[in-house]
C-alpha cells in the first residue's frame, strides 16, 4: 500500500499486503451494508449488528493470516464515532500502538473514513498491525469506487517523508486528514498532503462525503484475546471533525460483548480499546 506509482508496488515488495487486501474486502462488504444504518438509526442498530460474522460470499482471510478453524468466517469488532452530514472530508488524531494479535486474529487497526450517501464510494486512512503484513504498525490508505474495494491501486504519492505501508512508532499520535480538493481526494499527515486518489476514480461523481467515521477495529475468527489499540481504554481518538462543514453530534458505537469498550468521550473525542475475549 505505498510507493511513487501507487499502492501496488509495495504489495509486490511485501507479499503480505496482498493478504491484508483480501481480508479488508470482508470488512468493507459489511461496512457498506450497514454504514447508513449506523448514521441514521444510531447506536442500537449498529451495536446489534456488531456481533454478526461476515455475510455469505464475503472473502475470509486466507490461510496463514491467522489461525482460523475450518469453515470459520471473520468477525469484526469496533469502537468508534460516526457523523452523518455533507462535508468535503474529515480529520482526526489517532493513537498509534502495537496491539497483541492472538492466533485467532488477522488484524487490529485504527482509521478515519469518509463515505458517499450509499456507501459505495469510500476513502480511508489509518494504521494497521496485521498477520498478513510483516512488522507494524503501518500506515495504510485505500478507497472504494462503485462498491468495489480498490485498496491495491490508485493512490498517487506526493511525499518523501510519508508513504503508505511505512512503519510507525507505537506510542506516538498520527494526525490524519481526508479532503476533496482540486477534484481529488487528498490524504494528509500532520497537516501536509502525502498523496491523493484522482477524482476520475469515481468519474468525478464522489464530490462530497455524506458519512464520516473514526474507529478502532479488530478482525478475528470467533472470540480472541486480541488487543484493540493497547488493550486498555486509556488511549484517545481526538480532534475528529468534518472539513468544509459544521461538525454535528455523532453516534458512538462499541462491541463490549467481545471485550472492546468505549471509554470517556466528548463531542469530537473518545477513549477506546480493550483486550478482547
Chain-wise SSE layout:
Blueprint lengths: L7 H6 L2 H26 L1 H8 L24 E13 L1 E7 L9 E11 L6 E9 L7 E8 L2 E2 L6 E2 L15 E9 L2 E6 L2 E6 L11 E12 L14 E9 L7 E4 L6 E6 L2 E5 L4
Antiparallel strand pairs: 1-11, 1-13, 2-8, 2-12, 3-4, 3-11, 4-5, 5-6, 7-10, 8-9, 9-10, 12-15, 14-15
Helix pairs in contact: 2-3
Describe the structure.
The protein has 277 residues and is mainly beta. It has one domain: Sandwich (Jelly Rolls), CATH 2.60.120. Helices cover 14% and strands 39% of the residues. β14 and β15 form a beta hairpin. The longest helix is centred in the N-terminal third of the chain and has 26 residues. The two termini are 30 Å apart. The N terminus is likely disordered.
Shape: globular
Low-confidence stretches: 1-65
Distance, first to last CA: 30 Å
Helix proportion range: 10-25%
Question: C-alpha Rg, in Å?
Answer: 17 Å
Estimate what percentage of residues fall within beta strands.
35-45%
Mean pLDDT: 79
Q: Describe the strand arrangement of the main beta sheet, using strand numbers.
A: 7-10-9-8-2-12-15-14
- The total strand number stands at 15
Q: Tell me the structural class.
A: mainly beta
The DSSP helix count reads: 3
The CATH class designation is Mainly Beta
Largest pleated sheet: 8 strands, antiparallel
CATH topology call: Jelly Rolls
Order of helices and strands: HHHEEEEEEEEEEEEEEE
So, CATH architecture?
Answer: Sandwich
Amino acid at each position: 500500500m505505498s510507493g511513487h506509482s501507487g499502492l501496488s508496488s509495495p504489495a509486490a515488495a511485501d507479499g503480505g499486503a496482498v493478504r491484508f487486501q483480501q481480508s479488508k474486502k470482508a470488512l468493507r462488504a459489511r461496512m457498506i451494508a450497514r454504514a447508513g444504518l449506523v448514521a441514521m438509526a444510531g447506536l442500537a442498530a449498529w451495536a446489534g449488528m456488531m456481533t454478526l460474522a461476515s455475510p455469505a460470499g464475503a472473502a475470509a482471510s486466507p490461510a496463514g493470516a491467522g489461525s482460523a478453524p475450518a469453515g470459520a468466517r471473520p468477525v469484526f469488532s469496533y469502537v468508534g464515532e460516526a457523523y452523518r452530514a455533507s462535508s468535503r472530508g474529515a480529520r482526526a488524531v489517532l493513537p498509534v500502538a502495537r496491539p497483541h494479535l492472538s492466533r485467532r486474529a488477522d488484524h487490529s487497526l485504527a482509521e478515519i473514513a469518509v463515505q458517499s450517501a450509499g456507501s459505495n464510494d469510500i476513502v480511508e486512512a489509518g494504521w494497521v498491525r496485521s498477520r498478513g503484513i510483516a512488522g507494524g504498525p503501518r500506515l495504510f490508505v485505500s478507497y472504494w469506487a462503485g462498491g468495489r474495494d480498490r485498496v491495491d491501486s490508485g493512490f498517487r504519492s506526493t511525499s518523501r517523508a510519508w508513504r503508505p505501508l511505512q512503519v510507525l512508532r507505537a506510542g506516538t499520535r498520527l494526525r490524519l486528514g481526508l479532503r476533496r480538493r482540486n477534484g481529488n481526494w487528498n490524504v494528509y499527515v500532520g497537516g501536509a498532503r502525502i498523496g491523493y486518489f484522482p477524482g476520475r476514480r469515481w468519474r468525478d461523481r464522489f464530490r462530497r462525503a455524506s458519512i464520516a467515521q473514526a474507529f478502532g477495529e479488530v478482525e478475528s475468527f470467533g472470540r480472541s484475546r486480541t488487543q484493540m489499540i493497547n488493550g486498555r481504554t486509556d488511549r484517545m481518538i481526538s480532534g475528529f471533525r468534518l472539513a468544509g462543514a459544521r461538525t454535528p453530534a455523532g453516534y458512538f458505537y462499541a462491541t463490549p460483548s467481545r471485550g472492546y469498550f468505549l471509554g470517556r468521550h466528548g463531542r469530537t473525542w473518545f477513549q477506546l480499546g480493550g483486550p478482547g475475549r
